[in-house]
Design goal:
It contains 14 helices and 14 strands. The chain has about 400 residues and is of the alpha/beta class. Strand 10 and strand 11 form a beta hairpin. It has two domains: about 140 residues, Alpha-Beta Complex (Aspartate Aminotransferase, domain 1); about 240 residues, Aspartate Aminotransferase, domain 2 (3-Layer(aba) Sandwich). Bound molecules: pyridoxal-5'-phosphate. The site of pyridoxal-5'-phosphate (PLP) has 14 residues, from helix 6. Pyridoxal-5'-phosphate binds next to helix 6.
């Protein structure tokens, strides 16, 4: 069939990274490419008990339609925890439960962005968000970053010279893919710039609780006294991504529109899993659970970094992460990480080339992303050995 796809979708190209990731379906391949949590981190036994109890005592509620705003106990517990622990949410804000953080990004774009409107995003950035923006024909402008987050001088110049900027998209804590954390000073300045130039900020923060080193930096939303910041959170990385539960805390007028968009999109988030998540929060200590995940990821990150230091002969630069799931690496200038990742794929170990996270998908870059949350310690050891083997001849 010769399908005529909509202009919105036909601009989305299947990315070259797929070809590389295809090899991860082979079980003998070691993947440093995924963004998946460690399966050991899932509280499966606790959830099995809760699930059985829901079906024994409250099956009708779990199997019935629910409200689009979200299962009320989960909404309330989420809002309360975010306010008490992180000072996120004011009286003008409201909370919406979504089908993952991805849905916040997609629906916010649907609600705010007309074709050709501009979204400013970090360079590099999360591919799922970039593709959501592209699917609404938004114009993306990338703002470079350093270790402290977005370059705010470039951002301000861009704001001065660009019309129709709808929002600034940032992942300020343990950024995907770079792992960077935006400093508090920059968070404050970013908010000031957003006020001055009257634009919104989408703060996407699915990793912010996964800190295993360094000092806590408060969410930008916790500094927001006017309703300019939309906070997107997720239970994917702290409970389970398969549940598909995320949340949005934003000004109530915006949440009301997002709720209409959600009705159109999927009516409501899976009620059974919302009930499981709510009961988990009521009966178990989520903070203690997260602390265990942080210990696990901290030790895997350390192992990966130590092995890189030992075996890569200084050929790959990176900054030791203080949290999150990723290590952002760079070959020497002039090398193409896409080609390097293809070569490592042939040796059965895969990482993601940096071009996959670029506003310009055809960019040639020496950067690549490594994930340390999913592979076991043995896989990290073997995978780094295999990569070191490729590097030996690849970078002279
Ligand atoms: C930066 C970022 N935002 C949002 C998401 C979406 O996560 P989910 O939809 O599972 O909550 C991800 C997933 O990897 C991510 O890396």
């Amino acid at each position: 069939m010769n399908f005529k796809f909509s202009e919105r979708i036909s601009t989305l190209q299947p990315s070259a990274i797929r070809e590389i990731l295809k090899v991860t379906q082979d079980p003998t391949v070691i993947s440093f490419a995924a963004g998946n949590p460690a399966p050991e981190s899932f509280p499966a036994a606790e959830m099995a008990e809760i699930a059985a109890e829901i079906f024994a005592n409250d099956a009708a509620s779990a199997l019935q339609y629910g409200v689009s705003e979200g299962y009320n106990p989960l909404r309330t517990l989420t809002a309360k925890r975010m306010k008490e622990k992180y000072n996120v949410g004011r009286t003008f804000d409201d909370t919406l439960i979504t089908s993952g953080g991805q849905q916040v990004i997609e629906m916010l774009t649907k609600v705010l962005v007309n074709e050709g409107d501009v979204i400013l995003c970090e360079m590099p950035s999360f591919i799922g968000a970039l593709n959501a923006f592209r699917s609404y024909n938004a114009k993306l402008i990338g703002i470079p970053m350093d270790d402290d987050g977005m370059d705010l001088e470039v951002l301000e110049r861009t704001l001065q010279t660009t019309k129709n900027v709808k929002f600034i998209y940032t992942i300020p804590t343990f950024q995907n893919p770079s792992g960077h954390v935006m400093s508090l000073a920059r968070r404050k300045k970013l908010l000031e710039l957003a006020e001055t130039y009257n634009v919104l900020i989408l703060e996407d923060s699915p990793y912010f609780e996964l800190r295993f080193a360094g000092e806590y930096v408060p969410p930008i939303k916790s500094l927001d006294e006017t309703g300019r910041v939309i906070f997107s959170g997720s239970y994917s990385k702290v409970l389970s991504p398969g549940m598909r539960i995320g949340f949005c805390i934003a000004h109530k007028d915006l949440v009301a529109k997002l709720t209409v968009a959600k009705q159109v999109s999927d009516v409501h988030t899976n009620l059974f899993f919302q009930m499981i998540a709510a009961r988990f929060l009521e009966r178990h200590d989520l903070d203690a659970h997260i602390a265990k995940i942080c210990t696990l990821y901290g030790s895997r990150a350390q192992l990966m970094c130590d092995l890189i230091d030992e075996k890569f002969d200084g050929k790959v630069r990176y900054v030791r992460p203080t949290g999150g799931l990723f290590l952002w690496c760079s070959l020497p200038d002039g090398y193409d990480a896409m080609d390097f990742c293809r070569k490592t794929g042939e040796k059965k170990v895969v990482a993601v080339p940096g071009s996959s996270f670029s506003v310009d998908e055809h960019e040639v870059t020496p950067t690549f992303r490594m994930n340390y949350s999913l592979p076991s310690e043995d896989q990290i050891r073997t995978g780094i050995d295999l990569m070191a083997d490729v590097l030996k001849d690849y970078v002279k």
